[in-house]
């Protein structure tokens, strides 16, 4: 069946070959049915009497229905205007969108059977319909009732009136309408493309018909649709046979008087001729039912635009502040307050460039070329706001959907200008301007502006306050000299109840009070932001009716606290209308700093994420948490926690930035602060790597580089003496960084001495020394008296020393026969852990030393990442009757010390480590040493990365 158009349109009933006796315009349009069912109806059977019911419903009077079907008639307004022959010709003439269904009166049947859908079934071929005595036979009515599950056909006959009325018309009051069909010829075509295609088809037919423009015209139109004729009242009009429509030509081309791609509009100039008098009237054929640009092309235009242009964010914020939509600002009068706004004053708001900003992409023209016809060479592209008198309904839609009507204007030249009809206007460069209309959806821009106003409010005049705190740049830091260390777990435990769950913003004051209090008591703005914060005095107004809402920054820094800032932010989010369908989530993460995170989500998609970095929050540390809970912890140092640094340029062969350590404080007691050794306070203008003695933090090696005078406890002489603890355990984790040399060079990992000159005071010195040749070392601990014995001597014969080689094997020493000099043979491996290797001569290795002192008995254990079983010590050695007076945090503690070169030494001393962690605690019976060792190895050995 043919697709029909609107019922108030009449189609002209003539063809160029046969002009029927009475031309009549027929109302267009037909009810839609299932495509599957329609396909079945086209399989027409001449034996229509054999049609059967598909249901045996007892409450359906089939006989009554068949009786009424036999009496169907032609509608009164058509009964005297068409003959049976004319109606059949119109139905099968491709020039017209005419269907017999539109002239059949189904009223009597529907009055009795109101729930039925009826349709006249016409055979697919004209010769299958019989015309006898001005009636049409071999037709059928199809009846469908979804409620009663009925679907059947019954044969009918349509009787026409024998007397067709003579008609008169007023040519001056006629209007001609052409309705495009939705077929392959017209599908997805723009107005200009249709006009060119009509001209191309007309030119082909003009040649075939030997320059007969009438024949060519009426042969051209059926491929595109059909003509209808209306009077001044837009009612049906019948054209008498003495009238003829002719196309007007210029140089054998059709003449279009209107060609507008954007609106869209297309109008063709014709002549209406009275063949009896040869009088001629100018008429215009108005084209309607334009094919819509397919979703792919329309979507491509919008995609190209969004890719190349951005709606100005600052203007969007001002509009939201003023409670205006973009279309209101463009097409309606601006309020006085907005007229005087700095962004709008003396500006032309209908100008596209006022609202939009081009990005840096240069691919716009190439992308547009893909959507214009192939026979069009695009040369220039512009966008503009569509400027026309939109009605109230259209404007309301724009406002509700946050849309602006835009036009894409593409200038260029056609290839093959002979096919361009008259009316397609070219500019002085012989270019045509293609125009595509589309709607820019600004929902995202308006939403983003609303969110931005909630997070960073405008001032009372609607201006962006450049001195205001910007939440996206806001940074906090933990207060100095707090009695306890603030860990990531401190915050995570506080927010655990709401973490990664939608927040109830209405009750935020009560539910998040613990977090607000924690922030206010332990966190402040970073020092460099305090001056800015003190200047802030900003009034917040998300919308015109919210003039009294509290603003970020109405208070000075003296009263503005991080917890208050977060609370005010959440309060404003709760008052933002466009966020009603969104959820706000609270979470955290720790990378180089701890971050509190606010996520604003639409479903599962995060639309906005705010991070509040808090400097000096300590990363969760499992060994510390374990020792803090299970032992009496004296000291715990971690390379990445409670460390203050200063960034400077290292002046070596290659200048590189370094974060030099100013101090590192213990996690268990911030008063235990280590600073660079005093002798390090010298010029940093060094010439090579081995000369660097200032400690610096290295993220690449995950530690602090120590050599020279390393780090020492700040002001130990001011501390009160205390009784030393004799039963202690020490864990020390580090990476070797530089070879220890020359022979007998001592490098102190940890040195502890009493603050006294008494010869009876003992020290603890955990150290490394070179063993004869570069690359082979010893490690151990000395318990020595400060004043009477040389510091740093490792002697395995001394009961106050524990000593062990750190290479994997034995070193044989023999005298040479010729001169008595030492002969050092190759190492003979003792096991297969790592063949022929010194564990302290590998900068990729991480090492942990455990020293446990219990009742004058000491045990030293050595762990390394290079072992196949890193959770087990590579070796352990024990010593008895250790003369150790005890350990106290009030002792003079030093880390990573390389003794200065003596005046008579020719070779500089070398040796450095990357410090990772140190823990000193009382021996405990409530926890196994293996569990403690495992926690340190998991934290610092990076075994997953190595695997």
Text of the CATH class of the largest domain = Mainly Beta
Task: Write down the overall mean pLDDT.
Answer: 80
**Number of spatially distinct domains:** 5
Q: By helix and strand content, what is the structural category?
A: alpha+beta
Radius of gyration: 47 Å
Given as residue ranges, the uncertain stretches (5+ residues, pLDDT < 50) are 1-56, 534-558, 680-690, 786-793, 822-834
Proper CATH architecture of the largest domain: Sandwich
| Major sheet characteristics | 17 strands, antiparallel
State the share of residues found in helices, binned by percent.
10-25%
Tally of DSSP helical segments: 23
Shape: elongated
Number of strands: 43
Share of residues in strands? 25-35%
Our measurement of the CA-to-CA distance between the termini, rounded to an integer number of angstroms, reads: 72 Å
Classify the fold: give the CATH topology of the largest domain. Jelly Rolls
Short summary:
20% of the residues lie in helices and 30% in strands. The chain has 947 residues and is of the alpha+beta class.
SSE layout and pairings?
Elements: H1 35-41, H2 62-69, E1 73-74, H3 76-79, H4 84-92, E2 104-105, H5 107-112, E3 117-121, E4 130-132, E5 135-145, E6 150-159, E7 175-180, H6 191-208, H7 213-220, E8 225-230, E9 243-247, E10 249-250, E11 253-254, E12 256-260, E13 265-274, E14 279-288, H8 295-308, E15 309-311, H9 313-321, H10 326-331, H11 336-339, H12 352-355, E16 356-358, H13 364-368, E17 376-385, H14 392-401, E18 403-414, E19 432-441, H15 443-455, E20 476-478, H16 488-495, H17 508-511, H18 513-522, E21 523-525, H19 527-535, H20 562-574, E22 583-590, E23 594-602, E24 605-615, H21 622-630, E25 633-638, E26 643-650, E27 656-665, E28 673-676, E29 696-698, E30 703-706, E31 711-713, E32 728-741, E33 746-753, E34 762-771, E35 773-785, E36 801-805, E37 813-815, E38 822-824, E39 847-854, E40 857-864, E41 875-879, E42 892-897, E43 910-922, H22 929-940, H23 943-946
Parallel strand pairs: 7-14, 20-24
Antiparallel strand pairs: 1-2, 3-5, 4-5, 5-6, 7-8, 9-13, 10-11, 12-13, 13-14, 15-16, 17-18, 18-19, 20-21, 22-23, 23-24, 25-43, 26-27, 27-28, 27-29, 28-31, 29-30, 30-43, 31-42, 32-39, 32-43, 33-34, 33-42, 34-35, 35-36, 37-38, 39-40, 40-41
Helix pairs in contact: 6-7, 9-15, 18-20, 21-22
């Amino acid at each position: 069946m043919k697709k029909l158009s609107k019922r108030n349109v009449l189609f002209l009933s003539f063809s160029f070959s046969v002009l029927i006796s009475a031309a009549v315009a027929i109302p267009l349009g037909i009810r839609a049915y299932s495509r599957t069912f329609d396909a079945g109806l086209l399989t027409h059977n001449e034996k229509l009497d054999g049609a059967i019911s598909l249901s045996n419903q007892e409450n359906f009077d089939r006989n009554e229905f068949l009786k009424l079907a036999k009496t169907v008639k032609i509608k009164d307004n058509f009964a005297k205007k068409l003959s049976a022959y004319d109606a059949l010709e119109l139905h099968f003439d491709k020039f017209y969108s005419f269907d017999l269904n539109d002239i059949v009166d189904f009223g009597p049947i529907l009055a009795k059977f109101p729930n039925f859908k009826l349709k006249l079934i016409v055979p697919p071929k004209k010769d299958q319909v019989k015309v006898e005595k001005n009636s049409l036979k071999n037709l059928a009515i199809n009846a469908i009732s979804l409620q009663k599950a009925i679907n059947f056909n019954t044969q009918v006959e349509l009787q026409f009136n024998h007397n067709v009325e003579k008609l008169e018309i007023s040519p001056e009051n006629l209007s001609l309408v052409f309705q495009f069909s939705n077929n392959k010829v017209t599908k997805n075509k723009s107005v200009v493309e249709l006009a060119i295609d009509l001209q191309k088809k007309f030119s082909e037919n003009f040649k075939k018909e030997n320059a007969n423009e009438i024949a060519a015209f009426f042969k051209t139109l059926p491929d595109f649709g059909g003509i209808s004729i209306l009077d001044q009242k837009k009612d049906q009009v019948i054209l008498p046979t003495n009238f003829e429509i002719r196309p007007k030509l210029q140089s054998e081309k059709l003449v279009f008087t209107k060609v507008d791609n954007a609106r869209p509009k297309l109008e063709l100039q014709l002549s209406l001729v009275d063949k009896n008098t040869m009088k001629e009237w100018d008429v215009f054929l108005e084209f309607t039912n334009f094919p819509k640009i397919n979703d792919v092309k329309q979507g491509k235009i919008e995609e190209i635009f969004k890719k190349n242009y951005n709606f100005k964010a600052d203007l969007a914020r001002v509009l939201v502040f003023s409670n205006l939509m973009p279309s209101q600002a463009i097409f309606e009068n601006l309020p006085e307050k907005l007229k005087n706004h700095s962004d709008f004053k003396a500006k032309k708001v209908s100008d596209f460039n006022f609202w939009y900003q081009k990005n840096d992409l240069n691919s716009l023209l190439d992308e547009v070329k893909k959507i214009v016809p192939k026979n069009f060479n695009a040369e220039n592209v512009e966008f503009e706001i569509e400027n026309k008198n939109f009605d109230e309904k259209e404007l309301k839609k724009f406002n509700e959907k946050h849309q602006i009507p835009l036009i894409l204007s593409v200038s260029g030249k056609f290839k093959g200008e002979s096919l361009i009809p008259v009316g397609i206007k070219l500019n002085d460069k012989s270019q045509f301007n293609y125009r595509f209309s589309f709607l820019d959806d600004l929902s995202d821009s308006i939403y983003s502006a609303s969110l931005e106003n909630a997070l960073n409010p405008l001032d009372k005049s609607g201006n962006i306050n450049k001195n205001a705190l910007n939440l996206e740049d806001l940074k906090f830091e933990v207060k100095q000299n707090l009695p306890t260390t603030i860990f990531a777990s401190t915050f995570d435990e506080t927010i655990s109840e709401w973490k990664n769950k939608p927040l109830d913003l209405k009750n935020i004051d009560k539910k998040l009070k613990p977090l607000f209090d924690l922030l206010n008591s332990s966190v402040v703005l970073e020092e460099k932001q305090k001056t800015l914060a003190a200047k802030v005095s900003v009034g917040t107004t998300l919308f015109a009716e919210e003039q009294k809402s509290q603003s970020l920054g109405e208070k000075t820094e003296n009263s503005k606290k991080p917890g208050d800032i977060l609370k005010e932010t959440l309060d404003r989010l709760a008052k933002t209308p466009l966020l009603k369908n969104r959820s706000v989530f609270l979470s955290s993460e720790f990378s180089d700093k701890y971050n509190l995170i606010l996520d604003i989500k639409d479903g599962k998609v995060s639309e906005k994420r705010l991070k509040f970095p808090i400097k000096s929050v300590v990363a969760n540390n499992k060994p510390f948490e374990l020792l803090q809970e299970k032992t009496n912890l004296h000291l715990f140092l971690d390379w990445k926690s409670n460390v203050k640094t200063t960034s400077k340029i290292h002046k070596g062969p290659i200048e590189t930035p370094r974060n030099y350590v100013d101090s590192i404080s213990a996690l268990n007691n911030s008063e235990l602060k280590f600073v660079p050794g005093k002798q390090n306070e010298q010029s940093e203008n060094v010439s090579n790597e081995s000369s660097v003695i200032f400690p610096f933090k290295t993220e690449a090696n995950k530690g602090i580089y120590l050599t020279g005078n390393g780090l020492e406890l700040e002001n130990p002489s001011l501390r009160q003496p205390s009784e030393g603890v004799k039963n202690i355990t020490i864990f020390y984790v580090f990476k070797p960084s530089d070879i220890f040399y020359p022979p007998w060079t001592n490098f102190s990992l940890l040195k502890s001495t009493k603050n006294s000159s008494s010869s009876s005071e003992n020290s603890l010195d955990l150290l490394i020394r070179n063993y004869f040749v570069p690359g082979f070392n010893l490690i151990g601990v000395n318990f020595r008296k400060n004043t009477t014995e040389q510091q740093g001597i490792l002697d395995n014969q001394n009961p106050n020393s524990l000593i062990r080689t750190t290479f994997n094997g034995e070193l044989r020493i023999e005298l040479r026969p010729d001169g008595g000099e030492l002969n050092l043979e190759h190492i003979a491996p003792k096991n297969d852990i790592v063949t022929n290797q010194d564990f302290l001569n590998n900068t990729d290795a991480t090492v942990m030393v455990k020293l446990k002192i219990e009742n004058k008995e000491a045990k030293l254990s050595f762990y390394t990442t290079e072992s196949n079983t890193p959770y087990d010590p590579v070796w352990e050695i024990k010593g008895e009757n250790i003369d150790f007076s005890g350990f106290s945090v009030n002792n003079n503690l030093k880390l990573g010390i390389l003794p200065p070169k003596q005046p008579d030494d020719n070779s500089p001393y070398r040796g450095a480590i990357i410090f990772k962690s140190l823990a000193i605690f009382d021996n405990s019976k409530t926890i196994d040493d293996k569990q403690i060792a495992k926690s340190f190895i998991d934290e610092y050995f990076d075994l997953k990365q190595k695997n």
